[in-house]
Queue: 2 jobs
Job 1
Amino acid sequence: MRPYCVLLVAVSAFAQSAATYDGSRQVKLTGVVTKIDWANPRAFFFVDVKDAAGTVANWAVEFGNPLDLEKDGWTRNSLRIGDTVNVEGVPAREPRSQAFAKSVTLAKTGKKLFVAAPKKPAVAAVHEPTPRWPDGQVRLGPPPSKKGYWKAPNATALVDSTAGKIAMNDEGLLKNLSNVDRVAPFQPWAKAVYEYRQRTLLKDDPLARCLPPGGPRQFQMPNGLQFIEQREVGRILVLLGGADRNWRVIYTDGRPQGQADEVVRGYYGNSVGKWEKDTLVVDVVGFNEHFWFANGGLPHTEALHLTERFTRPDLGTLKYEVTVDDPRTYTRPWNGGWNMQWVPNEEIQEYFCEENVEATLSGKESYK
Amino acid sequence: MAICAPVFSQQGHPLTGTWSGDWGATSTQRNQVTFVLNWDGKNVTGLINPGPDSIPIASVFLDPTTWTVRIEADTKNKVHISAEGKLEDLGSYHRIIKGSWTQGSTKGDFKITRT
């Protein structure tokens, strides 16, 4: 009987999860492709690899998100069963035949089929003016008759703005654990929980089980987001492109914020927003404790109260600032934030974390 | 049959929640016990065996550097309870606390699991 399930990890197309893969090691494989699993969000192919003793092992090789791969010219037929390939990649931490590909080369021709590289979104020229509604209010979505969405935060971890630069990877893993005290003004228990999550390489991340990325984390997701401003009914919808492809409502109809103890608790909380000149200020309470509100494993309690500020100084930039106030977790309120970039003429992609949920619920062994 | 951990894990203060298990002086003489614990930002408060015969918890001490927990309470009959244990499997919804239990002059062990 399996005591718990295989960890599923929702990651960006070309980033391997530190919990699943050991970035400090490399593996080189040569073998014949036996199967291709061209599935969103994570594509795998399988190769039979023979070791020096002649023993054949079937390796599962992850190589990215099919939607991003297609944008780079891939199709499900770019690699065929029976092809012999050379793979360079990062092996899984667990003792199993699995790797995350950094490059894939056809052995017969030497043709490089795949080279992992961070994808740079097309970014709107920043000199273009901020789009506005006819009454002058800033638009958070595209200009009239245009498309676009927000992506590529320039920071993928939330840290106290007084801390200065702290070296972390894209998942919010500290390069140096001695910097824990600089990340946020933790209460002792919260510091210990954060350290535990860091030391265990974020293995218990609820996002890896497809739970929603509430709080600031929704603005750290690799697949971006879109604002749908429904001014006639006084609300803004935030459509999330990644994780579990979820959505959040920010009420701008003038309603008062509920009392934190009375609000039905959820992953995205209860959001009430109002415009202060060109800044949308959103008050959020009513969070549950089932998720991590930022990359890297920052803890919180039901007392979490966020004040978010969104400004759009030009077409291509969304400035996100947040004040975190959770007196049960932190010794004082603290601030953080980042900028996101406008991806013009595109829409958020379909990216469902739940692709592997069947394996999650059944406890069935899975390579994903 | 496969069993999975619930996906709705509690990620806040690691003691918050309902814990159930047993304590006893020997492996065969066991007593069911339930704890309901809540972190208010300064203290962990709660009850043992909620219901008509519930026992209010007098104090909870947590050392997060070692994840050791000490819980003190007194029954209606003024029998002192002291449970001291270690929090294990911190990242799991079904994390556990196990250690030594003293109730009056009876000494034993306990193990409770977050439910």
Job 2
Amino acid sequence: MKFPFKNYPNQKGESDFWPVLQVQISNPAKHSPPSKRFEALIDSGASRCIFHANIGKAIGFDIEKGEPEDTFGISGKPSPIWIHRAGLYVAGSIITVRAGFSYEIPLAAVLGRIGFFDNYKITFDSSVSPPGIEIERIARI
Amino acid sequence: MTDESEVTLTVGNCISYVSTSPIHLGGFVATDTASQRLDLLRSAPLNAWIALSEDESRIVATGASYQEVAEGSEKAGEPNPIIIKTPVRWLAFSV
């Protein structure tokens, strides 16, 4: 499946293309209905998928009862996350991922290597207009 | 009107269905829809949660939490919004 990058503003009054997908998550432990769709940044530099704790709380995760872990971004400052099993609805499929929940992430979510890139072959193509992402589910036997 | 707009509603931003109509090119360069989305995001409150209508043409709810905008979008008659968390400032993103 192919998806276009999405336009976001930048500080210079211009715009920037971000590789985002519209996803939903659910809480398998509580058989919760999935969240509303939200935009998640595809980030091959992120070790794992991280969702804003705000979304997790809304669908019944007891965030701080997850497995605690520290993570850091480009600033180098450690930031706490809590790991939970979550259902991830993406590109027409549902997978279960061990994902982090963070109160400090500045956007709704990032889709990282553990859980996302190890389940999908992702191709970024900025050489074409429009730029976009191609996603192919990796078959597991 | 062809069925193309119905297809767009069904598949979200999937571009497997090629169309030359700008209205289908949600995130693309130089379309009315893309600049409309940018205008919406620029007008949205910062460090907040916002809900866009399913066709990304308007903001249907804003709030301080995901829950608030999820409920707000239902009240606004938009059960299938697209929720975005806006940053403190619109900057280049590096995680």
